[in-house]
Amino acid sequence: MKLWFVAAILISVAFPAVMGLKCMTCTSAESWDKCEGKSTTCVASLADQCVKLHYKAGPVETFFKGCGSDVYCDEKTNPSCKAKATNASYECNINCCTGDDCNAGAATRITGIVLLSCALASLMMFFKA
What we know:
Helix content: 25-40%
Mean pLDDT: 77
Order of helices and strands: HEEEEHEH
Number of helices: 3
Strand order of the largest sheet: 2-1-4-3-5
Shape: elongated
Strand content: 25-35%
Low-confidence stretches: 4-10, 13-17
């Protein structure tokens, strides 16, 4: 019985990674409210995080949600944010997360370490009883 419980936890932690991350995708030039998108399954080999990006260059703004990698989650390497160095009135705000559709609302970041810690805590409580 305990073996089945352990197997179920391991599968539930590993299975979403096999299926691919789902992220909200949209682009708007007006606001987050106008950035209405849909949930899309990311290509695992290209994107392992959901991105929520807002950038502003003078009067022009862009609101973006989609799939991305570490390159898109770092202001120094994100293609949209690189222009910040050449334009003094440029703003770039990036939030990345790793849960399905985690970029839909407020920015949160739940890492694999947090998920693994929760799974291990559950196992410890189960085997202690």
